[in-house]
Every structure is written in C-alpha cells, then in structure tokens.
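Supplementary Text 2. Reproducibility record for the structural model of the 707-residue chain.

All settings were left at their defaults, and a single model was retained for analysis rather than an ensemble. We include the record here because the model underlies the residue-level annotations in Supplementary Table 4.
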Amino acid sequence: MVQKYQSPVRVYKYPFELVMAAYEKRFPTCPEIPVFLGSEILHESRSEDGAIHVIERSCKLNVDAPRLLKKIAGVEYVFFIQKNTVNWRERTLRIEAHNETFANRVVVRETCSYSVHPENEEWTCFEQSASLDIKSFFGFESTVEKIAMKQYTSNIKRGKEVIEHYLKELISQGITFIPRWSPPAAKEERAPAVGRVPGDILLDSGAAGTSREPAASPCPPPEAASPDADKLDADYIERYLGQLTPMQESCLIRLRQWLQETHKGKIPKDEHILRFLRARDFNIDKAREMLCQSLAWRKQYQVDFILQSWRPPALLEEYYTGGWHYQDKDGRPLYILRLGQMDTKGLVKALGEESLLRHVLSINEEGQKRCEENTNIFGRPITSWTCLVDLEGLNMRHLWRPGVKALLRIIEVVEDNYPETLGRLLIVRAPRVFPVLWTLVSPFINENTRQKFLIYSGNNYQGSGGLVDYVDKDVIPDFLGGDCMCTVSEGGLVPKSLYQTEDELENPDHIRLWTETIYHSASVLRGAPHEILVEILEGESVITWDFDILKGDVVFSLFHSKRAPEPSHKEATSPSPSAAGDNVQLIDKSWVLGVDYSRVESPLVCREGESIQGSHVTRWPGFYILQWRMHGPPPCSSSSLPRVDDVLASLQGSSHKCKLIYYYEVLASKDFRGSMSSLESCNSGFSQLSGVTTSSSQSQSSSHLSR
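Retained model, structure tokens:
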C-alpha cells in the first residue's frame, strides 16, 4: 500500500529572499539535522538572465533502523537525489527528491515548495508532500514502512525549526534584508550600492547583507484566514483545530482536498472533517466512507437547515427535560438532561420517534454552533461539548422496551453523523437500576465515546473528585445542590389524551428521517377486527406486545394456527373509502375455532385510555395471530339482563370506530429472560393503572398481560 503525506501550509514571517538564504545554510552539511550527513553537488545551471537557478545534489542520510535490518540489507547509509529549482522572478523554490538506494525495491518521492504568501508579500509559505511505496524488502516490508514513516514524521517539524534557527542566525549577523532579483539591464541602471543578486548570496552565504527594513510586514493577514482558500495553514490548524501530529495534519488536508475535487455539494467545515478522522483513528479510507455516507444523509434529509426549519412543539418544550446551560471548566458548552424526570414513554406516544429524533439532531447542530462560538470567545480550539445527565427518578418504567429501542435508534444516527462531538458525559445520581439500562445501551456506543463516561451513584458527585472538578461551582444547577438557577424543564407525565396515531403525527412539511416507526396505528370497526400475523419457526420464542387504546373499548386475543391465513383489508363496512385503510383481517370467516385455529390467550377487555403490555411464550411453531376487536355486550338470554357498563359501552361505541397504537416484537427465550423487566410496566407510575395479570388456562406457556 502506498503511504502518502501532505503538509499544511507553514508560514515564515520573513521575505522569500531571506528564507532562501537561511535554507542554503543547510548545505553541504547541517548539524541541526543529525540524520543528514552531507551532500554533494552533481549538477548546477542558470538561465541567461540569472532568474532560474537549478542545483542537483546527492544527499547522504543515516537511517535510524535496527542493526540487524541494516546488515540484511547490506547498507549503512541511504542516498537521495535532490533537485532544487529557484525562480527569482516568480520568487519560488521547488524541491524534488527521490531515493537512489534500493530504488528497485522502495520508491520514495518528495516534493516541497517555497512561495510568497498570497496576502502578504513579505511572508513566505512552505508546503510538502511525499509518498512511500515499498514493493519488496527481504520480507521486512511492514517493519521498513513503520521505520520510514516514523523517521519522516519526526523530521517534518524539525525542518521548520532549522529554517527558523538559521533565520535568527542571519539576523544576529545583521542580515535582515536581501534585495529582490531584477533583470540585468534594469540592475545596471541602478546604483552599485544595491550589491549582488540573491543568487550570488546563496552561493556564498557568508556575504554581508544590509539592514534596510524590518523582515516582517506590519499588516499581517487575518488570523483565521488560510494562505489559500483551498489550503490549510499550520497556524490556523493549531489555533482552531488543536495540536495535530504531522500525519494527522496530512490526513485532514488530503481528505479535504479529495472533497474539494469530488464533492459537488457544500464542503463541511474543517472541524467537522476532523471529527470523522478521529472517529476512525485517522484511517483516511474509513473516514472518507463514513463522511460520504453522512453527507449523503444530510443532503437527503436537509439536515443543514434543521436549525432554521425545526420548531419544537409546545408539548416537547414542556415535557422534554434537557437544555443548554453555560459551559464546563474547559470551555465546552454544557448540556443538561434530567433523564430520570422524563416521561419517555409519553413523549414517544404523543410525538413519535420522528419528532424526538429531529429534536436530538437540532441539539447536535446547536452544539456544533456553540463550539465554534466558544472557540472564538476563549481563543482556543473547542470542538466538543459536555453532557450532564441526572438520573434521579430513573426506575423500571424507563426500561420500557419500545423506548429503549427508540433510544438505540437515535444513538445509532448520532454515532454515524456526529462522531467525536461528545467531550465528556457526567452521569450523576445513578440508581440501582442503571446497570440494566447500561447493559442494554452500551454495546451500541462507540468505544471512544464510552471512555468519556464518568458515572456517580448517590451523592458521590458532590465534593472533590465530583462535578466541581469539571464544572465551576457557580454553574452547578440548583437541583444538584448548586447556586445556579437552571431553566431546564422539570418534565412530568404526558397526558394520555395527547397520544397520537401515525396519521396524526404525519407532517407533510418534513421529509421523514425514519421510514418505519416503532408504533403502528390501527382502526377497529364493528365486525372488522384488526389482526397481526407472527410466524414462529421454532418453539420457545416470546411474543411481546405493548398497545394503547386511544378511542373506544376493544377485546384483545391471541390465536394459533398451523396454516397461514391470507390478509384482507376491510372496506365494505367502513364509513368512507379511507377510514379502514389501517385495518387488516386475517382469520377467514370460514375458519372454525378449535379446528382451523385455536385460542392461546384468554380474551382481555381493554378500556379507552388504558395501556396494555404483555408477552406469550410459544410452545409450538406455526402462525400466531394478535387480534383486536370492538368490545360489545355478550348475547344475553331471556333469563339474564346485560350489565349497565356493557350497555353504556355499546351505546358509546356503536357509531364510532376504535383506535389504537401498538408495538410487538418476537424474542428468543434466552434474550427475553434478560430483558423481562423492560416489559413489566404494571409498576410504572406513568400508567397510573392498577396492576392486573391475566394468564390463559389454555396456554401451556407462561404469559402475562399488565395494565
């Protein structure tokens, strides 16, 4: 594999001619670069007017490699051919180098250039690129590649230090100004005090110079500006992106160049590109693949405009317990999430996962914006934020399986599109149930992200080693014992009257981020039940369900059949053509109960406003049918009168269809045992219903239903 390197633009705040005088001091030997043992001029030429000066040298290098490897290779030193072309008219120097030793086994090519800064002609820019291709090396290809890359990168920044060393040496000798090149004819007309052309000075670096003017310009370019719109300046990287190794800088520049050449849309900001590189440990191919998928996702769902287009519903602002709150001690924006106080179940059922995901994306977009603002405010790179999660109030209701599933889907989207944005996660007041939630969620979180988690149980977050190590005392929220008033919502229970179906949640102004939702909606009409088919290929599986009755009363049943029914949509009895579009019937009218299919769970009457959760452990393979039918009074004989409740329910629902939202899932028996608690919500304070368990006398498997 060919290894490549591309440097950022490094700027010397000195004129080109003075930098060239410092550069020539490196030859024929340079004590400041121990690996460089010496050089010999092979060829030298000039143009007639002296504007172009070409020097070709053979350079001798001492490679820091194991003695055994040198012995196997049969060499003590390696030689490179370097060709320097100075153009005094254009004020440029181009350096081309390649290896002479082992040229048939290893190909090393390097290109460097010095040029005038485009915004300040008294400054000089330097760029460097190189490639390494090891074709074969006595079976030590990988070792040689590591040695070569290590030695090359260690000498990259040293090269700039050496130039600056010789610049200071020149200045100490009184040489602070060297006149620019001019054509011979023009030079003869000038006063003889001007002296020799720059080329002569470079051939005799000991020549005296004159002090005419300061080396640096009094009007530097803006600090944030790169020397070229398409290039990155080393000082800009350090100021706005942080300390990077030479190879990390190279990866950033190469990926950025690739995007400029191939990407037709908006080029992401440098800090955004850098996050993807960090997420893939600076493997440029993996980072490029991840970034391209994210850019396509952003374009498809118009995420770049989410801060302008997304307006959180009033319900979300009232019940979502999260918000921004100043910054931590490192200057990172601080986001507070009171997860233990949040009715996650109510939010999902009232708003849907789509709205929650959009809200989370807007939080991430806002976080990136705040990082940029803090970078300017504090004068140092800030590329991530801190999240403080308060778990006071977290209990088994938060381990509700559909909610955990929605959380995992959101985590997946954020991990794929906002990598390395979380600088630190502080979890405080973690209860005993937290390890269960962590076991469910942690496998879906990147290892680099998991290492940023700090977890405090009880009151361990107080005092030394706690929050005060990461957040200033005057910023700690009042609900955690601090003095700072926090405006984050305290949450509460979402009224069930606000729960909505899929159709009601649909927003025509937004492109759907998720094509499938966790909860589905259904209509139940008199004589037209809604039925769901679940195929079980082997026994000992677990069918789980969770549904809410939004309107009317229904009867829930579970059946088993050895043969697959054919679905049909009820249309004949629907009030309008589209009224029963979400109603599916599976059990054919010709089927006989006890012959073609059998009941495996006793019927359960579910009243309007109730939340039902349950499960059934299957005993036989085949087809299981979940059925919801409209509840009506049982047929009564002449000797018995119908109950008042049944008569009222019949009158109330006789002219209306029933509505419900439901979720179901099939788990292997072993998986269900580990997540049983996530399905038992009869103890949930959010249900506010008495716990009721109904077991089927006809089923040989364990099953439960809970309200």
